[in-house]
Amino acid sequence: MAKKLTAAMTALVLVGFGSGPMSAAELGAVDEPIKVAMLEWTGAQISAQIAGKLLEKAGYKAEYITAGNYPHFQGLADGEISASVEIWLNNVGEVYPKVLEAGKIEDLGSLGLKTNEGWIYPKFMEELCPALPSWEALNDPDCVAHLASPDTLPNGRFLDYPADWGSRAATIIADNNLPLTAVPSGSEGAMIAELRAAVAAKTPLVMMFWAPHFILAEVEVGWIDMPPCVDQSNEHCIMPPDVNKAVWSGFSEKWPAAYEVLKALQISTEDQQAMMLAIDDKGQSLDAVTTEWIDNNEALWRPWVDAALN
Amino acid sequence: MTAVWGNRQYRIWTGLLLLSVLLVVLAQHVPLFKSFPAWLVLDLSTWLNSVISALFETLRPLGMLLSTLAEMPLAGIRSLLAWAPWPATSLLVILVALYAGGLRLALFAAVALGMVVVMGYWPKAMNTLALVIISVPVAVSIGFALGALAHRLPKIRPAMIALLDVMQTWPAFGYLIPLLILFGFGPTAGLTASVIFSVPPMVRNTLVGLSDVPPAIVESALMAGARPRQLFWQAMVPTAMPQLLVGVNQTTMASLSMVIIIAIIGGFNDLGWEVLSAMRAAELGRSLGAGLVIVLIAVLLDRITRGFAERGGRAISGGVLRAGMVIALILAVLLSGYDLLPGDQAQRLLRRIDGWLLDFVAWSAPVFAVLRNAITYGVMLPMRIGFSGSASPMVWGFALTPAITAAYVLVAVALALILGRRKPMRGIVTGFAALLFWTGLPAFPWPGVFAVIGVATWQKGGAGLFALAMAGLGLAGLSGLWVPMMQSIYLAAVAVLICFVIGGALGVLAAENDRFSAILRPISDTLQTLPQFVFLIPALMLFKVGEFTALIAIALYAVVPPIRYVEHGLRNVRPDLVEAGVQMGATPWQLLWQVKLPLARSSVLLGLNQTIMAALSMLVIAALVGTRELGQQVYVALSKADAGAGLIAGAIITAIALISDRLLRRRVSN
């Protein structure tokens, strides 16, 4: 309650003093809450909370809608979700491109995360396969023997993304004639569970993964130096994915200043990872961690809000 | 052996066996028989999609209207539950429990709700409750109306029952996309799926209740001059009320379980979402906590609705109930606005479970690796790639030489002949088993599958079942899902086999020993009501991504029906017959195998039926640990928002379930 009150007061103050002749953008429908998508993973939840809290600082009401990554694009297109601030463009399914094409959602550009994607292994494996992190290690029969499993014999087992994310790893394995078989993992949870278990039990594992991710703060992994790409296409070559922000097509008209705030919003990988660690490892609440960030980084975000309002 | 040729039945099946052998031999040289021909595969999902999107886009305004209508009361109940402080809501629930089931139930309610609060799941539990409160009345009304309709018009009953079976076996994820297109993003799509899944028990119980109204009551009502409407509402419905309330109970349970699964859409921040998020982060403690809360709520809802069904409530007077309600309301007004929920200490405690699990994994990894390899090499690989595939230096350590092939054939033929000497059907079954063990289930030649299933369904279920089987198999072939379908059947078959052996043994023990039974029952209850996602995390850590982990997850859920039905069957064997066996000097072992189990046969078969249903319903969940079968296809379709592909994969799973159900059910009635 107290928080809502503060937000309302902030809104009053901002409405009272902020709407001078200099205003770059109208506030718009301040009474209607802006619905920010809260997706499944911690990183996206942090980004959503920061976006929501900045909107509150600018005088809006923010409402968080927990949503599945794939289904939520439909909600964004229909305006039932107003904004989604952490969209990994390498994992958008097939609805996102369609609704973007149809003009039902608007891309607001990069969130500013420095991402990584590639093949990882638990650090202890460097003792078993001394050639790591070079990809050549995966050509060494002794190293591959550590990875072999009944399903993949005589090849080594490579843990791939879930089948519904598409498999580039299998293509790259084939491009380089590596003695590995890509096994689809079924879900993100399955990948994390295996990685945790592999580190705990010291069982060898090579898998596809991405950063920033909270698990990387918890376990020590190495990134494999990838073999040269056959060509630069997405299918044969892994590039760091873009992470963008997007809003419903009617957003800029309804909440003009909020649109400017979200457009300006940037979150650094270091900050996000530190917050992920605080939440997932130290068990602090999402609300407390993001509020702390807002309090400590006013110098960073104040210009975004001011530019939108003045 | 003359008996074999004297009987048309045996002749047909021997012919089929020989045909299958021929196909297996031919398949090595003719690729046409080996895998379903690719040129026959049609782009069914694209066609289906063009129809579905056109249809659902036109219906969309209607869908949006319905969704607004559904979401208004939902939002109301949700904010009411969010506003009411937990002591007030708890008091109300405890009073209802007291009214429905007496002091013991009220005590249980108090402890259960206290745990929900302490563990920090109260707001999420209230959101789940809001979903259940909206979906149950809708499902009960629809179910009652359909049941009354089917009672009134006996002609539509078979079609209605088939429809109910489809509604219960079609995986919800398979039709989620059309629902999302229709209703838009939001709770309505999930609520609709929950209603679809939970209507059937209400229809069935309404039908049974109305049919069982004694004719004497109907007649005396007619004698008293009741008009049709009065007859129905004032004579039949009150008489059928206990059965109707059983329907309400089952509908409530079904609704709760589906509300949890459907949380995958998101948008409601409920317990199901919590379980899913925990699964995503592979946190056992968190998902176990949410799972436990779900079990507590399920048991509470079950006991309360069952209390009404069995005794009609009234453990306390209405006056006390009303007085309590007033107190709860006053409490709510007084306490609202205060933050009374405890902090996150319990959540931190739950996180420790993950540490313990990892310690256990580190300590036990070698043991479980051995178990995993033993079952993979010994059971799963032979059933998947068969003897012919397993007999390689890579798998079993020896190659498939002509001598070994000859020996296999010789042993198989000899075994079939010996076993078939007195009971020819046993010989034929042995023959098929040997053949399946040779090719592995997924690689059995597809024309053979058509032939065997075709004859079996025709003989057991007539033209209708035959048509269903052919349609299901044809759909799988034509849509390019033949291999995933065979993989699904293989995975479900292995799971059923393992569950039936283990569950059957546990059921026998439970029937013999009351204390063991008492220990086993809450475990069974928990395994069945705990959201299935919770099993996946420890299974993954111990056994890694892959089919074996999927098998464990399926088996943990599907092991319950054989335990229950075998115990139930054995406990209800007529005591005089057992006594007769004892008198004749049977050892306990003989008593079990030759007296009790044969007598409990119909219950055991029903248990087998339920095991198969449970295993098939877990396929979609198990796909989260990386399988390659139909369940995985459902997810792929979900991520691509490919409504057609999801519907097709779901339809094939439904067809498998219906066919195996009908095949076994006929046996029971024979």
Structural class of chain A: alpha/beta
Structure summary, number of beta strands of chain B: 0
Q: Would you tell me the structural class of the helices and strands of chain B?
A: mainly alpha
Question: Distance between termini of chain B?
Answer: 26 Å
Strands ordered across the widest β-sheet of chain A: 3-10-4
Treating each run of at least 4 consecutive H or I residues as one helix, how many helices of chain A?
14
**In angstroms, what is the radius of gyration of chain B?**
27 Å
Count of separate DSSP helical elements of chain B? 28
What number is the mean pLDDT of chain B? 86
Shape of chain A: elongated
Number of strands of chain A: 10
Overall shape of chain B? globular
Q: Would you identify the CATH architecture of the domain at 47-83 and 119-312 in chain B? A: Orthogonal Bundle
Assigned CATH superfamily of the largest domain in chain A: Periplasmic binding protein-like II
Assembly type of the chains comes to heterodimer
Poorly predicted runs of chain B: 1-5
Q: What is the CATH class of the largest domain in chain A?
A: Alpha Beta
Largest sheet of chain B: none
The CATH class of the domain at 47-83 and 119-312 in chain B turns out to be Mainly Alpha
**Rg of chain A, Cα atoms, Å:** 22 Å
How much of the residues of chain A is beta strand, in percent?
Answer: 15-25%
Membrane topology (chain B): Multi-pass membrane protein
InterPro entries (chain B): MetI-like, MetI-like_sf
Main location (chain B): membrane
Family (chain B): Belongs to the binding-protein-dependent transport system permease family.
